[in-house]
Amino acid sequence: MVVLRAGLCPGLTEDMIQLLRANGIRTVVDFVSSDLEDVAQKCSLSYKALVAVRRVLLAQFSAFPANGADLYEELKSSTAILPTGSPSLDQLLDSGLYTGEVTELMGAPGSGKTQVCLGIAASVSLGLKQHVLFLDSTGGFTASRLYQMLRAQTEDEEEQASCFVLQLEALQRIQVVRVFNIYELLSALQELRDRLSQQVVSSMGPLKMVLLDSVSAVIYPLLGGRQSEGLALMMQLSRELKTLAREFSLAVVVTNQVTRDSSTGPLKPALGRSWSFVPSTRVLLESKEATWAKATPTQRAASLAKSPRQPTGIQVELDIG
Amino acid sequence: MQREVGTLPLAPALRARLAAAGFQTAQELLDTGPCGLSKEIGISREEALEALQVVRQECHGDAARPAGGSGATRKYTALELLEEEQSQGFIITFCSALDNILGGGVQLSKITEICGAPGVGKTQLCMQLAVDVQIPECFGGVAGEAVFIDTEGSFMVDRVVDIAAACVQHCHLIAEAQQEEDHREALETFSLENILSHIYYFRCRDYTELLAQVYLLPEFLSEHSKVRLVVIDGIAFPFRHDFEDLSLRTRLLNGLAQQLIIIANDHKSAVVLTNQMTTRFGQSQSTLVPALGESWGHAATVRLIFHWDNSQRLATLYKSPSQKESTIAYHITSHGFRDVQPPAVTHSPEGPELNPRKRPRAEEEQQ
User: Fold this and answer.
1) Given a cut of 90, is residue A210 above it in pLDDT?
2) Which CATH architecture has domain B81-339?
3) Is the minimum CB–CB distance between B21 and chain A shorter than 8 Å?
4) Of A176, A180, A224, which is closest to B261 when you measure between CB atoms?
5) Does the N-terminal peptide bond of residue A214 adopt cis geometry, omega within 30 degrees of 0?
6) Are the beta carbons of B294 and A259 separated by less than 8 Å?
7) Does this complex have an ipTM over 0.95?
8) Domain A78-319 carries which CATH code?
9) Which of A289, A273, A302, A256 is nearest to B294 (CA)?
10) Which residue of B83, B92, B298, B363 is 20 to 30 Å from A243, comparing CA positions?
């Protein structure tokens, strides 16, 4: 619904716009969907000029249909599968995190979502030498824990010095942005998009992964009650994440909370039905025992709740160590 | 800057009108100018000017950030964060077992939540931390001040006096044993009056006052920049009674959590909250779980649950980003929060009217 403005395309002058507006044509959609002969007569403009303007507007604003085979070729060449660093989780996700898709990790407090995110960041940065963007909205990012994970992953290198250099480089490839409300998050994503589209190769090298921990912390205060904007902002956010994933071939991982309907109901993911259509894959993390005095403190169970490729309900055991 | 209109922090009614008029990006808004804008969507010139100012700030905020950024930039590499974390101190609790499972003590710039049944020692720990945050750096503390927000009225000044006196004495003993110059200097300012005067106490009677107080806290903290600890004793209490609309409660609590994280992060202080316990009825048994619902569990970064095991007080680390879950035992003495001593102390036999879980007070420990 773009408003017609002078300079939108060559040939669209201010006078033309005034005449069109006087006849009720304000936006691009009105223009391209109206009968041009009619318009030419009513506004006393030349038919050829109007056709030329329409052609340019269509080229600028319409979506192009794509061939299925071309799409498949493009997918084969641009999609990458990033291993998460944990073989059982890779098995659950059909060999890893796919770029171009949004994956969601959900779980109760203390179930290990932040740990899994840190593990993924460490593995992608160290193993694949790709850059990672970590958007932290809960304050749970602990660099010393990340360092511990990196140390554990470089244990098999022989030399101490080269280990240390590898770890330092891996740490430098992970960029952390702390965003504590929805507008900060949206402007951080916008900034990322600008940077990627201008292909500024500064400290930010080839970015392949964006982790958002957690999405519900920034959206929860906006939903419900008589606030109508909460849902709109959530959908805006989902659109940003999905277009970022698709356009720049990134793997986007978000974490979500779980809630209950009543105090005895089953656990279900937070943010409701509208959000449930956004991620293409959903993994539920649970701790094995129900009470909080755990016998095996680092074991978790991950089950697949939604996937485009695997049957749901598969469960594996994770060690968040 | 192709920032979409939907992502700008404008009033929802204004946003709806802009969308209906066909504006899609911020650049279009800026190009139109205030007069054009007020004509297009039918608002007054002043409102249009205000809206454009907000848009300009957001867009220029975006542009300024890569160029070195304002104070609100929160972008770091993991390496920088690691260096920052390693140089940050912890607030010790004087119970070495608890400090160990927490990884050194209560961490700055994180929210720690303490849940427990009544009488298990949550307020005691809060008072201990309010004193411990002021320990000078040469003794291993962070030399900060404390803000204590009390909603239950359980803050007892005489108890803080006891705890502070014990802490000062402890530091004196260390200074005598080590005989260093900076220890002596530090001890001159670390006295009872000083400690008490650096605990800023606020009393909030209901949830509106609590929300208002947290809203005003950033200003207070920028004036008192040495504050390193914010304690809210009893975050559950104002939200548990008289609240009919539960979804409003969840929204308010989540908004509160985000504000507290911003405070913890921007002012590099630890935020400590205490929570109550409630019973969840399962199929065959009932369990004690922390109050305020499932979504509140995600608000705190570190969660400690205090509970009883016969007559022993135990602390379990339930949720932490960097430490494993474990359980330790602790003790509350007249000097404050301490480790469990080996059983050399003989207790007088408990009378039938005393609470069998509480250690009976000996004569000389009473006020």
Assistant:
1) yes
2) 3-Layer(aba) Sandwich (3.40)
3) yes
4) A180
5) yes
6) yes
7) no
8) 3.40.50.300
9) A256
10) B298
CATH of B5-60, one of 1.10.150, 1.20.1070, 2.60.40, 1.10.10: 1.10.150
pLDDT at A184: 86
DSSP B362: P
Which residues have C-beta within 8 Å of that of residue A297, sequence separation ≥ 6? B324, B325, B326
Query: Would you call A297 an interface residue with chain B, using a CB distance cutoff of 8 Å?
Result: yes
DSSP state string for A284-318: EEEESSSSSS-SSTTEEEEEEEE-SSS-TT-EEEE
Residues in chain B: 367
Q: Do A2 and B22 lie within an 8 Å CB cutoff?
A: yes
Provide, rounded to the nearest whole percent, the portion of chain B with pLDDT above 70.
88
CB contact under 8 A, A141 and B12: no
- Enter the pTM of the model: 0.81
Interface check for B15 against chain A (CB to CB < 8 A): the answer is yes
Min Cα separation A139/chain B (Å): 6
Amino acid at B355: N
**Burial of B179 by CB count in 10 Å (0-12 exposed, 13-18 middle, 19+ buried)?**
exposed
Helix, strand, or coil here: A147? helix
User: Quick check: B161 and B192 in contact, CB under 8 A?
Assistant: yes
CB contact under 8 A, B305 and A292: yes
Please write the tens of the pLDDT for every residue from B301-354: 899 999 888 888 999 988 888 888 888 888 888 888 888 876 544 443 433 444
Distance CA A232, CA A130 (A): 33
Beta bridge partners of A287: A300
Token pair for B357: 């879980």
Contact criterion met (CB below 8 Å) for B7 and B28: no
Q: Domain map of chain B by residue range?
A: 5-60, 81-339
Distance CA B165, CA A280 (A): 59
Cβ contact B298–A217 (<8 Å) = yes
- How many whole angstroms separate alpha carbon A253 and alpha carbon A171? 19
Tokens coding B117: 């049944």
> Rounded to an integer, what distance in angstroms lies between the CA atom of residue B102 and that of residue B300?
14
Q: Under the phi-then-psi rule, with left for phi > 0, alpha for psi from -120 to 50, and beta for the rest, what region is B33?
A: left
Within 8 A by CB and 6+ apart from A65, the residues are none
What are the tokens at B142?
Answer: 């962070």
CA pair distance B141, B254, nearest whole angstrom: 31
Q: Using an 8 Å CB-CB cutoff, list chain B residues near A24.
A: none
Q: Is the pLDDT of residue A290 over 60?
A: no
Sign of CA pseudo-dihedral B230, B232, B235, B238: negative
Test mutation, B7, B110, B240, chain A, max A CBs within 10 A: B7
With the C-alpha atoms ordered A279, A283, A284, A286, is the resulting torsion angle positive or negative? negative
Best of A25, A57, A142 to disrupt the B interface (most B CBs within 10 Å) is A142
**pLDDT at B214 exceeding the cut of 90:** yes
Identity of the amino acid at B293: G
- Tell me, yes or no, if B261 comes closer than 8 A to chain A by beta carbon: yes
Long-range contacts, stretch B215-218, CB < 8 angstroms, 24+ apart: B215/B259, B217/B147, B217/B263, B218/B262, B218/B263, B218/B266, B218/B267
Q: Which residues on adjacent β-strands are paired with residue B75?
A: A177
Amino acid identity for residue B326 in this structure = S
DSSP code per residue over A61-101? HSPPP--HHHHHHHHHHH--EE--S-HHHHHHTTSSEETTS
Chain B: give the shortest CA distance to residue A268, in Å.
11
Q: Which residues in chain A have their CB less than 8 angstroms from residue B324's CB?
A: 297-298
